[in-house]
Write a structure and sequence with these properties.
There is one protein chain. The chain is of the alpha+beta class and 699 residues long. It has 13 helices and 37 strands. Strands 6, 7, 8, 9, 12, 13, 15, 16, 20 and 21 form a 10-stranded antiparallel β-sheet that branches. It has an 8-stranded parallel barrel with strand order 22-23-24-27-28-29-30-31, surrounded by 5 helices.
Length: 699
């Protein structure tokens, strides 16, 4: 609900539990008024009528109070907007009107000197407020002269202002390849804390999300303010505490102030969404609200469960053949797998990571009749068929690069840096986009392909090309990637997509609006994964979190030995997949795996579509998560190590009806809801790396 004050210059956005208020002064200063638990319009108007704080020498009366601080005028805070033409830098705007519909507010401004129209958009999605900005550069005709090109140095999507509190704490997700999404919390101090990516993609190092609490919020209690950015290129989020103690969060595309783009007269730019949420039920309540928001407004077809998949990569590497894939498919079908995915090396001259990228046609020696015969057999086995691609990349040893060496990002006259023996295609070029569309459309039209694992294994280093400013490529690449995915989804509506970037290097609200799931990490060790999945769940739901069961000992990273039980229960916390070499699994392992797959299919609607409760974090000892959907609940628990032969403490459940009884179909036992929530569930786990699945249904 959006309400407008009697003066027409105060606005209140209210969701089920929260409100957000802003107001315009008579000097056209757009001020932040309130963000927190739900209030009435009269309360917002009272806040708008309060006198400003007393002025102090060397301090701006606007700093820390504006909704969207621009560069220029009496301001010293980090500007959300910085523009310049060839003579003048900064913005001085005038309010030109506003518009309100059922769930969106637009506030319009104009800078007459730059011929720039600025529209701030607020869209309400339950308790989540989506914010973005549109910059439209007019041609200037009718005012005595034409407009000049306008350089956009910085265009954040939003600045969020938090209420004054004694002490703030910051939560963020940090990491690196194979160690993504690790949660860390630290006190906010005066000055700025900046996270982001200079890599051309979201990055493994940080997820574009922050959460702040001021009074010791816990998992289920206390106020939490959190923000998440919907952008898959380079980005920046800055959390800054001003000298008076006010805390603001600014965020948007691009990391540095070297420039985003140049707006020619008549051109426009719309920033990605930077979404914000207040929640009064702790970090768990905030997570569940974010999950519900993504399932309803972000993720395609989010009310449908994702299939159990098998991926052939760890079984075969680059040494693949059609018959080998057929044999793996038959074993996968015997486990109850629903989607069979051929990973790398099915195309071109791809015999190692040094060759073949860019040549998206089946290798004739490995697949003499293309992919269709294999896809047909996979379908005949009752499974869907998927493939791996990395369309934004090219190997120098490829037919594509030999024909078009100018199609890659490069700085003229400089050495073309290679990572993973790859270069990045320049998606700002129309001919590159046309090639990718033609090849991918032909690929999806030429065989019954149901799933595409879309990888991105090389960060930007040389973003440039002759005749183009390097900054254009950073912004254009993300927009053109979205356009290509949108076009492919429209042309092939039955094909689902997974976002991958060496694991979790491209996970954000922007890519999730165009893909059905994400590959969370290349790290498939089941113990490491518990920490990664714990951090991932702070923002994203289990419905998109792909997780695999692979071989033991873990051959990729650490050589850890773990039971099939522990590996399956770890992976069942998200979208279950299998990635081990099934040709080496014993008959007893295959039989056990079949039972785990059957069990996962039964609990899958609760896990993927239910509300998530993090019962105990994976910090040693016993950890557990719980999912609740309707009358059903599922608890997954893992014991790292048992000490002194002592039974782990019971796990206290949440989200149940304390007055109801709950039956466990596996043991036949019936529990009182109050006992499960207040005394807890005894898991019976013991030894090292033990795990269990506990199903409950309200009687």
């Amino acid at each position: 609900m959006i309400e407008v004050g009697t003066d027409g210059r105060t606005w209140l956005l209210s969701g089920p539990t929260s409100s957000y208020a802003l107001g315009l002064t008579d000097r056209d200063e757009l001020l932040h008024l309130y963000w927190g638990a739900r209030i009435a319009l009269a309360d917002a108007e009272a806040l708008a009528a309060e006198p400003p704080p007393p002025e102090r020498g060397f301090e701006s009366p606007l700093d820390g109070r504006e909704e969207y601080p621009v560069e220029g005028g009496p301001r010293f805070v980090r500007p959300a907007l910085s523009v310049r033409d060839d003579t003048v830098r900064g913005t001085e705007w005038h309010h030109t009107g506003s518009a309100v519909d059922a769930d969106a507010l637009q506030v319009h401004f104009r800078d007459p000197l730059h011929h720039l129209r600025i529209t701030l958009t607020y869209r309400l999605r339950g308790d989540v407020v989506e914010r973005s900005v549109r910059l439209a550069h007019e041609d200037g005709h009718g005012e005595g002269h034409g407009a000049r090109p306008l350089e956009v140095l910085r265009a954040d999507s939003a600045t969020w202002t938090l209420p004054r509190r004694e002490r703030w704490r910051l939560s963020q997700l940090h990491g690196r390849w194979a160690a993504e999404s690790r949660l860390v919390r630290s006190d906010i101090t005066y000055g700025e804390k900046v996270i982001g990516s200079r890599r051309g993609h979201t990055g493994h190092q940080h997820l574009p999300w922050v959460a702040l609490d001021a009074e010791g919020a816990t998992e289920e209690h206390g106020e939490v303010y959190s923000c998440a950015l919907a952008w898959s290129g380079s980005w920046r989020i800055a959390v800054h505490q001003l000298p008076d103690g006010t805390v603001q969060i600014s965020g948007g595309m691009g990391h540095d102030d070297s420039g985003v783009t140049v707006l020619e007269p008549g051109a426009a730019l719309t920033t990605p969404v930077f979404a914000g949420l207040w929640n009064g039920d702790g970090f768990g309540g905030a997570s569940r609200t974010w999950h519900a928001y993504q399932r309803e407004h972000v993720i395609p077809d989010a009310d449908t469960v994702r299939p159990v998949l098998y991926n052939s990569w760890e079984a075969t590497g680059f040494d693949i053949s059609e018959e080998q894939q057929r044999a793996l498919a038959r074993k996968a079908a015997g486990l109850g797998v629903e989607l069979f995915v051929v990973d790398d090396a099915w195309f071109g001259g791809r015999v190692s990571d040094r060759s073949g990228l860019g040549d998206w046609t089946p290798n004739p020696d490995r697949f003499p009749d293309g992919l269709k015969p294999l896809a047909d057999e996979v379908h005949g086995l009752g499974m869907r068929f998927g493939i791996w691609v990395e369309p934004e990349m090219v190997n120098p040893d490829s037919d594509l690069y030999r024909a078009h060496p100018d199609w890659v990002q490069h700085q003229p006259g400089r050495t073309r840096a290679e990572f993973r023996n790859q270069l990045v295609l320049d998606l700002s070029r129309e001919d590159v986009r046309a090639y990718l569309w033609d090849r991918l459309d032909a690929l999806l039209s030429g065989a019954p392909i149901d799933f595409v694992k879309w990888d991105f294994n090389r960060s930007f280093t040389d973003a440039g090309r002759p005749g183009a400013a390097g900054r254009e490529l950073w912004w254009a690449h993300g927009r053109q990637l979205y356009g290509l995915l949108d076009r492919l989804r429209a042309a092939h509506p039955n094909v689902s997509f997974e976002s991958c970037s060496g694991g979790g290097g491209r996970v954000d609200l922007g890519i999730l609006s165009r893909t059905d799931q994400v590959w969370t990490s290349d790290n498939t060790d089941p113990l490491d994964r518990l920490v990664i999945q714990h951090g991932f769940s702070q923002l994203h739901p289990a419905r998109v979190m792909a997780a695999w069961v692979t071989d033991s000992p873990n051959t990729q990273l650490n050589g850890r030995v773990s039971s099939l039980r522990f590996r399956f229960v770890s992976a069942m916390a998200g979208v279950l997949g299998i990635g081990g070499d099934l040709a080496r699994w014993s008959k007893s392992e295959l039989a056990e795996a079949r039972d785990w797959v059957d069990l996962y299919k039964e609990i899958r609607p609760v896990v993927q579509l239910g509300d998530l409760y993090r019962l105990r974090p994976p910090e040693g000892g016993l950890s557990a998560v719980q999912y609740v959907r309707g009358d059903e609940a599922v608890v997954l628990a893992w014991l790292r190590a048992q000490s002194y032969g002592e039974e782990p403490a019971p796990v206290r459940l949440r989200g149940l009806d304390p007055a109801a009884a709950y039956a466990c179909p596996d043991t036949g036992k019936t529990y009182r809801g109050a006992v499960l929530m207040r005394r807890g569930l005894r898991t019976g786990l013991k030894g090292d790396l033990d795990a269990g699945v506990f199903r409950l249904r309200r009687v």
